[in-house]
Every structure is written in structure tokens, then in C-alpha cells.
Amino acid sequence: MKSEIKSLPTVALRGMTIMPEMVVHFDISRERSIAAVQEAMVEDQKIFLVLQRDQDAEDPGLEEMYEVGTVASVRQIIKLPKKILRVLVAGETRGILKSIEYKTPYLRTEVEILDESDFQSPEDLNGQAMIRGLKDIFVDYAAKNGKMSKEGVGRILEIKDLKELVDEISANIPLYYTDQQEILNQTDFWKRYEMLAFKLVNEVQIMDIKDDIRAKVKERVDKHQREYILREQLKLIREELGDDTTLTDAEEFEQAAKKLKASKEVKDKLAKEISRFKSSLNSPAESGVIRTYIETLLEMPWNKAAKDSQDIAFAERVLEEDHYGLEQVKERVLEFLAVRTLTKKGESPILCLVGPPGTGKTSIAKSLARALKKPYVRISLGGVRDEAEIRGHRKTYVGAMPGRIANGIRMAGVKNPLLLLDEIDKISTDYKGDTFSALLEVLDSEQNSRFRDHYLEVPLDLSEVLFVATANSLQTIPRPLLDRMEVVEVSSYTENEKLHIAVEHLIPKQLEKHGLTQDRLTFSRQAIWKMAKNYTKEAGVRQLEREIGNICRKSAKEILTKDKKKIAVTEKNLGKYLGKEKYSFQMANASDEVGIVRGLAWTSVGGDTLQIEVNVMPGKGEIMLTGQLGDVMKESARTGISYIRSISSRYDIGEDFFEKHDIHVHIPEGAVPKDGPSAGITMATAMLSAITGRKVRSDLAMTGEVTLRGRVLPIGGLKEKLLAAKNAGIRTVLVPEKNKVDVEELSAKITKGLEILPVEHMDEVLKKALVQ
């Protein structure tokens, strides 16, 4: 086999292999490829065509292209719109890609052109046998494929030269481009012949299998048709004999539609669909879709309502039994019941219970349903991102079904259940639609009397449904949706509330779950108190319940293995069951110190105290902030230092003090990120204390934001912050004057033992915090 090295313009093809002897046209749009074709026309019309391995590569390198391609001559070029060029080429011979000469302005490569013209086809009996064998396989393939013209097949069958036969078959059979590339890669003729024969036989077998599957499917369809005809004949014979006692599906639907309590609009829709069902019995696929739709309409409780309980005393008793504390929530529920009893109207408010995890939001909804004697349906919305989950799928889609709201009403069996929309703040939105906007129609009392589910296609009255939503945070809920709900905050529990919840609810529940009784396992109040304080750090009681369950498991094992009759868990032996303490509170400092002030912070698991430390040292007037502070706290620190500089003359601070000293503000636990608008006065007090050398009271804590002029701004999460101060042994707490109303709303159990002083200006803060 002869070969020569030649430099040729090159086009890297995507998803297409061109073989020798193949005449084909293809479209190109890359600028390099267009330039390569134009250069080929300028030279001798010769171009090298090679398949690229990665179909998405825009600028393939040597490693990203197959080694073997085809040298072809360009026959025709047609310019198409949008800078596309249609090229007609004729494949001539194989070429081996050696190297890339350059890529700009077009791809040019060095190609080893293989000349196979000197190959002599065998003329002995072996050669004849190979030709006949290949032709037989090709005839079988062409007959089953059905895509090749008779003229083309006849022309190939007239070829008597073996090499020409192999090349013509390779160029004309519609194989997948990777299979064609495998044949092209074979520069050895005998291996190429074997591979071509193998692939043709493979294709014939695949087509045989496809024909077999098609025949079985047809046989099954014919069987269904035969059964339908026989069934109809049997029905006719029974009617003739007068034995027709069985109703058809359509007749059953008609009888159910007559008994259904629904509006005229729904009944008209049902009648229309039943009529369609009768005419679609010859089409099993269509009748199946219509059947499902009719059954869904019949199952919906259009005008079926549950009678609400109006016994307020019973409702109050149920709420008190199921939950300790949560007075605001219980009061709101009883108010709703009282108004409903007086007005005798079905319209209900949309309550949104907001609070940290584990505070009993979902169980409140369950208790409310029990108090009202209503059916209860919980719909979890966490992670829902498809609008069709709320509004339903249109019937045109395969596997269409009603949305979660309509399905919840169907499950309840009445049109006025309590529907809990759990984790409404965890809904996400993507390209499939805005899920929050879909909920607007559901939760708007002005619109939801005619809520349209895409699947049902008839209005569904949601005005009598009592919707209760739960959320951990309001920040992710859009404002328009929030405006349609009445927000009821479920705050974190105090230690005292956790103690009562554990005694009245958690311990009995876990004892029953683990096969124990109060005679065999008891908990002292001090042990429960210590569990809540030193083994859990949470706003709710989930972790506390897990720790109680942990003790129950260990106790069950101890009772069986050590034959103990009774186990008492006390403060002293608690470590035996739960190990070492996991959390501890940073108690108030023993003595007054300079530059150290105790601040109060709100977290998702309750309140906490932050000790802010400030050091002053000789330097160039820099302010260093450490302890993983967020942007808001950094700005508060800078605002505080600006305020201190504005009042420096009152405290005899030298004019050049801030130019010759560095101030370092640090909040310990540097690995924990901290941010929020409530540490301004704390940082300002600590900085002034460090600058002037005056001590700060160790039994005092404070919370509030500061302005440049020294005004103290209000904050949130006051209940949790005061609880944290109390746990840390703080006696006096400074809070913003505008939070005075929040203090008055707190129960005496929280404020007992705390001196809460409202402050309006930094002058008051410094006067009360600094030791005179």
C-alpha cells in the first residue's frame, strides 16, 4: 500500500463519518470550517474530513479528533441563510492525521494519504466465496432495512471486484456514524471485510428482534379487540334473553352522578365526560384517561360538609390537654371559634404559625382539628417547586393528576376540613412556574371560592376550608402571600415550660413507646431541668424528647439484663445514661472589668449571651474587628467609635488619642459567625470602657442598636435574650425604650429576678453600665 504526506485544509465533523466512494452533502457553520472549504476550492478542491471525538468541542485539538479520516474533493458549495454553508463532497481515499500545522484562520493538517489502488482482489475460489457471502448478507440486510432503493441494491450486486464491493457497501448502508468510523479506522482490508460482515449480521439480528416484538404487540392488541367484540356480543345475547342484570361502567357513572351533591356546572361537566366515555370504548387508552377523570370528579366532596363543633369549652380543654404554654396561639384559636359560633358563617381565617423547629406548630394544627371535630389533612410543601403540584396537571399530559390542594380535599371527604400547609417557607421556584403565586389564589379569601385546579377544570370552593400554614421563618415568604395570612408567632420555650412539657407529654409518650411504666422508670424534676439546660440547645423540645428516649432505651436494657425492678433517674446519675454534659452557659463575670461587656443575642435555637472584649494599644489609629463578625456588626462597631469620638471631650480623651492608638474588638468563639442589628450599644460601651479605663458592671447585660448621635434603636427576640441573661446569672438588663411594650407582654416567670431598665440614649447606657 502506497502513501504520501500532504498538507490539506481540514474540517472536523460532528456526528457524521464520510467514507471513501461516498457522495454526500453536509452543512457547516463554524468560521474555521467555512474558511477551510474556501481554501480547498482555491487550491485543488481536495479537503480532509475527520470526525471529532467530543461533539461539543468548538476548537478540537489533535487528541480530540479520530486518527483516520477521508480525503475528499469538493464538488459544490451553496450559501444558506444565517452564515451556513452547504457543501457537496465525494470521498476518495483514507487519510491518517499526522499533525496540526495551524488552526487560524482555518484548520490545516498534515495527512498521510493511503493509496489502495494497487490492491489486487483475489480471483480464486476464496475470493469468489467472500464476494458471494458478503452479497448474501447485504441482500438480507437490504430486504429487512427497507430504506435502500432497488436500483442502488442492484448496482452494488453487479460489482465483481471484492475491494470495490466492500467500499460501496460501506459507503451506502445507513449505519450509525460511530460504526462507520470503526470501519473507516481499519486500514487493513481483510480486517475491514470481517468487520463489515460482522456489523451487517448484527444489524440483521437486531431487526429480527424488533420484528418479533412488533408481532407480539400486534397479537396482544388483536386479543383485546377480540375480547371487546365477544363482550359486546355476550351483552346483546343477555339483553335478548332478558338476563341483563349487570350495569356497564357508563351506567354506573350515570347513577353516581345523579346521587352526587354538586352544582349544575359540575353535573353538566360529568354528563359531558360520561358521553365521551361511551363513545371512546373502542379506544382503551382514551377511555382509561376519561374513566380516571370521571372517578376523580365523583370522589370530590363538592357540597358535602362536616358539621363544626361549637363547644368552646371542649376546644379549650383539648388545647390545654395537648399543649403546655402557647397562650397567644390558644387564645387566637378560641377567638376564632367564638366569632364563628356567633356569625354562623363558614369563612375561615388563614393562620400562619411561625416559630423555630420543634415548638409544636404542626401538633397545634392537629389539636385544632380535634377541637373543631374536623377532618385533618397535612400537605407537606417542603421542596415543592412545580406549580402543577398546587394547581394540578392539565389532562393533556400523560399521568395527569389533581394538585395537592384538590387531592387533600378529596382525601378529607368534606369541603370544609382543616388543611395544614406544612413548611410553607420551604417552597422553591424554578422554570416550571412560580409556586408561591399559585398559592395566592388558594389563600386569598376573595378568590378561593372559585379555585381552578387545572385537572378538575371546574371551580372548587375553598372558602370554607380552615387553612393553617407553618413556617420557621417569614423571610423567604413573598410579601403578597404573607399579606393574605394572619401570622401567629410561636416563640421558643422557657426552661420551666420545657420541664412541664417533658412531665406531661414527652415522658409518658416515650415510656409507652419503649414498653415501660412510671412504676419502673421515674425522672426527677432536677434531672429534667439539667437535661434541658446542659444536654440540649434548642428552641423546641425535639432534642429533649430524643434524650428522654435514649434514657428509656438504656433503662429497658438495664431492667432486662440486671433484673432491676425500678430505675430512678436523678440529677446525680444523669451522666451515667447521657454521658458528659454537651452545653454550658457562660456565667456572669465575678468582678467588674475594663473593656468587657456582656451582650445578648438571638439564635434559631433560643437566646445566648456574647461577651465583647476590647483592648486599646499604641498604634496608628486602626480598628480591628475579630470573631467572625458580619457586615452589620462591623458597621455597628464603626458607628460606635464615631459616636465615642464625638463625645471624647466629656471623658477627657486626648485629641490625638485615636491617631496614636489601635482599638481591637473581639467576640470569643471565633469559629461561629455572628451578625445582627442589636450589638451596637454593647460594642460602644466596651470601647469607651477600654479607652477611658473605667470598669463595666459584671452583673449587667445589654441589647440595642446605636446611631451616630447616640440614640438607642429597638431590637427583636427580646424573650429569648432575657432568658439567656437569666440563665447566665445576670441581674440587670438594659433594653431599648421602644421595646418597653414587649417587656410588658412577657410573663412574670420570665422577668422574675431581672431588673429590666429601658434606655433611650447612650448617655443613659453609659451612666448605668460604667462603674462610677
UniProtKB/TrEMBL annotation:
Function: ATP-dependent serine protease that mediates the selective degradation of mutant and abnormal proteins as well as certain short-lived regulatory proteins. Required for cellular homeostasis and for survival from DNA damage and developmental changes induced by stress. Degrades polypeptides processively to yield small peptide fragments that are 5 to 10 amino acids long. Binds to DNA in a double-stranded, site-specific manner.
Induction: By heat shock.
Domain Lon proteolytic: 591-772
EC number: 3.4.21.53
Lineage of producing organism: Bacteria, Bacillati, Bacillota, Clostridia, Lachnospirales
Gene3D superfamilies referenced in this protein's UniProt entry, alphabetically: 1.10.8.60, 1.20.5.5270, 1.20.58.1480, 3.30.230.10, LON domain-like, P-loop containing nucleotide triphosphate hydrolases
PANTHER family tied to this protein: ATP DEPENDENT LON PROTEASE FAMILY MEMBER
Chain ranges of the Lon N-terminal domain: 8-204
InterPro entries attached to this UniProt entry: AAA+_ATPase, ATPase_AAA_core, Lon_bac, Lon_bac/euk-typ, Lon_lid, Lon_proteolytic, Lon_Prtase, Lon_prtase_N
UniProt-annotated catalytic positions: 678, 721
Protein name according to UniProt: Lon protease
